[in-house]
Amino acid sequence: MRWPAHPRWLAAVRWRRRCRTAATALLALTLTAALASCAGGDDRDGSTLRVWLVEANIPQVAEGYDALVADFERRHPDVDVELTQVPYQQYRDKLVLAVQGGAGPDVMALDQIWSPEFAAAKLIEPLDRRTQRAGVREKDYFPAAWASNRWQGRIYGLPFNVGAWQRMFYNADLFREAGLDPDEPPRTWREWKRAAERIDKLPAHSGISLIGCRDEASSVLTDSFLYSAGGHLTRDGRADFDTPANRRAYGFFQRLAEHTPNGVAGACAEDTMAHFTAGETGMLLDGGWQSGSIGEQVSFDWRVTTPPSPTGRDFTGAMGGYNLAVGSEAPDKRLAFSFARLATASVPHQLATNDSVPALRKAGERFVREHRERPEQVLRLLETAEPRPVSPVYVRISRAQQGALQSILSGEDIGGALAEAERSMQQAIDRP
Amino acid sequence: MPPRPPQTSEASTATSPTARTGRAAARTDAPDAATARARVGRERRSPLRLPSLPRGRARRRETLLRLACLAPPLLLLGVLVLYPVLDVAWLSLTHSSLINPDPEFVGGRNYAEAFGDPQFRAVLLNSLVWTVVVVVAQFVLGMTAAVLLSKRFRGSAVLRVLVVVPWIMPGITAGLVWKMLEDPYLGPVNALLSGLGLVEGNPAWLGEESTSLYAVAVAAAWKGFPMSAVMYLAAYQGVPEELREAARMDGARPWQVFRHVTLPGMAPTIRVTLLLTTVWTFNSFDLIYVMTKGGPGVSSEVLSSFIYRTAFVDVNHGSAATYGMVSVTVLTVFSVFYLRQMRHTGGLR
Questions:
Q1: Of A8, A14, A15, which to mutate for an interface test with B (greatest number of B Cβ within 10 Å)?
Q2: Residues A191 and A334 both lie in one domain
Q3: Beta partners for B70?
Q4: Based on the domain organization, do A344 and A371 belong to the same domain?
Q5: Is A265 within 8 Å of B293 when comparing Cβ atoms?
Q6: Chain A residues with CB inside 8 Å of B72's CB?
Q7: What CATH number is attached to the domain comprising A192?
Q8: Which residues does chain B have within 8 Å of residue A275's beta carbon, measured at their own beta carbons?
Q9: Nearest by CB to A117, which of B53, B99, B186?
Q10: Model confidence at B14, in pLDDT bands (50, 70, 90)?
Q11: Same domain, A189 and A280
Q12: Among A137, A309, B57, B145, which is 20 to 30 Å from B296 by CA?
């Protein structure tokens, strides 16, 4: 049968078919979008516990995480632990996005400096009553690690691991070459400056490597100079940065920086480490955890000791490390706390899940004696170290501090740089 | 012989520039004329243009069909582009942070603070310098590489593959490599420059305020030029060899051939590539983040890294959105201005 050419009814049928296709496409699109948004919703019950930890650097720690999860699931047979490991560099970005989107974990590792911020934002749960009920005691942990969890009189996490900034690594061969006794490293700032000068005079060498770039590492490094000189960044919740002790500390840092390799204002931790391990610089300030790495890389005689301090004062380090906190959106907070407690209060798990010093004193002491050079010095440092300012706007306080250091290293007046930074810090505190 | 379709006004418009611009334009416009003729043919065959349907109803149905077809892309554009831009514009008029997540309306305060802040102004200037330096360097390197790669020689195929390596290398890796290369004491850059007698001592290119931005720009030019090279190579090979040959026969020197024959033929690709590299460069910050973290001071901070820091480190949504709006505005103004200029001048000629 031959169809008449383009009858009216055929055009209408085609038209309806096209409309139907378009409508179906639109519907499919809408449904897809709706389903996608539903999939992102939170319909969890208490049978799954979501845990976020910083990605393990070494296989032993990854095995430690697995053992921790297995142990917890054995103790709670009806619970599945969903462990997410996030690389350190991306951890904060991902965590902030997740908690802001209401998809945060039930248990999360938090850098000590983030705990008050998350607490102020009500993203983590106060744990005072639970710690009391569970018999968790402050004295079981290194003091500064515990203090980093306390904000407005309440406890917001359990210390997981710690690291005290900093240790002084030095090249004994260069010490000898410069006429210095490597068995008698400098103890005071005056001796330190003199040692740096003498090494600096050696051809093709610099006295010391200092971190000066715009990074948290430069903040925590200079904190130890401030604390050792009796200074601080904040007092009673207000910025208190432009003080005589801080001016003295930064003044000394500026003089010491005269003996660093060129470009100290742009030198980050990896640069200072590269210069030291290449035998270019005589001394290096860095965390004690770098001992292993330095030992593997260098062929010269190197030593490690506590950094010098102002005459008549002891060196005071600045504390770093991670805490475990319970998310305020966790469906079963009791369960989440149980996990955090198991991870932080069990000596075997603390030892197995950390390649830095465990925050639990018993585990930490054992770890330091087994893995660190001069363990007594390290343990003393951990006992006396102070936390960085426990403030919900710490990140902005630290940024202001980094700005001051950059100005000082570029030769600006120290008083002016500290006063300007103090203003920025106070502005951050006033307008969180 | 089938009857030739009558020439529509559209078709005559498409062919009219032929007379004005000569043979090259005639070649370019010929496909347009063919397309126009094909379109006329298709429209004639369309069932919606049937004489059996009342003309008004058919037109209404066609309009409805067009709207129905347009709806999905418009919906997608609205959801994926318009809504986020409007949301960011609204956020830029508010203050909110991780601690105070509920946006508090502050009007234009974020903008006033941004433009009153010397640091932000320095960052804006850095962004412009960074973009111009990197785009120009990528253009020069890309064009040079394209011309060299267009020649046939032993190993040219391998070289064409190798030249893309910097582009496919992740920004973080490229940043680390260049940071090592530019290290004042351990990097080969200073060793090379010292060997040539161009520098004395050990200048810290990344550690000095006066050089840090340019030191990162070198890395960015290296990382980005392969994309330009590939685009320019394709465009270069698209220019008929006969035209160059004819110019040579007429006595044109190599530079004149390149300037008056090759370059005009490549103009559309050059325009698009420059526009793309400008937008990418203005928005990129991975190399800066790895190599200098924006320092010393703010000497190598650009708008995109400033936005990242404000949004993700400080978690200050309002200010980050404000900087974002400034960034979008700068790029929009640039793009519109650039495209208008190009249309006005008729390319690079």
A1: A15
A2: no
A3: none
A4: yes
A5: no
A6: 22, 25-26, 29
A7: 3.40.190.10
A8: 185-186
A9: B99
A10: very low
A11: yes
A12: A309
A407–B53: do the CB atoms touch at under 8 Å?
Answer: no
**What pTM was computed for the model?**
0.80
A336 and A373 fall within a common domain: yes
Contacts of B61 in chain A (CB under 8 A): 15
Domain range for A106: 48-164+319-387
The nearest alpha carbon in chain A to B47 belongs to A11
3-state secondary structure of A127: coil
Assigned domain for A186 exists:
yes
Contact (CB<8Å) B95/A431: yes
Given a cut of 50, whether residue B1 has pLDDT beyond it is no
Which chain A residue has its CA at the smallest distance from B293's CA? A214
- Strand residue runs (E) in A194-266: 206-209, 234-235, 238-239
Asked if A113 and A388 touch (Cβ cutoff 8 Å), the reply is yes
The reply to whether residue A392 touches residue B99, judged by beta carbons under 8 angstroms, is yes
A10 contacts B293? CB cut-off 8 A: no
Higher pLDDT, B74 or B49: B74
Classify residue A125: in a domain, yes or no: yes
Facing A432 at nearest CB: one of B48, B99, B293 = B99
Residue A364 lies in a domain: yes
Using a 10 angstrom Cβ sphere, with 0-12 exposed, 13-18 middle and 19 or more buried, the burial of residue B148 is middle
Q: Please work out, in degrees rounded to the nearest 5, the angle formed at the alpha carbon of residue A301 by the alpha carbons of A299 and A304.
A: 115
Buried b (16+ CB within 10 A) or exposed e, A392-428: bbbbbbbbbbbbbbbbbbeeeebeebbebbbebbbeb
**How confident is the model over B79-96, as pLDDT tens digits?**
999 999 999 999 999 998
Q: Are residues A122 and A195 in the same domain?
A: no
Give the pLDDT score at B337: 77
ipTM above 0.85, yes or no: no
For residue A99, what is the DSSP state? H
Same domain? A194 vs A58: no
Torsion of CA B293, B299, B304, B310, to 10 degrees: 70
Contact flag B207-A406 (C-beta cutoff 8 Å): no
Question: Is residue A248 in a domain?
Answer: yes
- Is B47 in Cβ contact with A11 (below 8 Å)? yes
Residue with tokens 């590269």: A274
DSSP A66-87: HHHHHHHHHHSTT-EEEEEEE-
**A280 vs chain B: nearest CA distance in angstroms?**
8
Asked if B208 is an interface residue toward chain A (Cβ–Cβ < 8 A), one would say yes
Q: Are strands A234-235 and A357-358 parallel, antiparallel or unpaired?
A: unpaired
Q: Provide the domain count of chain A.
A: 2
Give one DSSP letter per residue of B47-73, joined into a string: GGG-TTS-HHHHHHHHHHHHHHHHHHH
Residue partners of A173: CB distance under 8 A and separation at least 6: A279, A300, A301
Determine contact: B206 vs chain A, CB below 8 A: yes
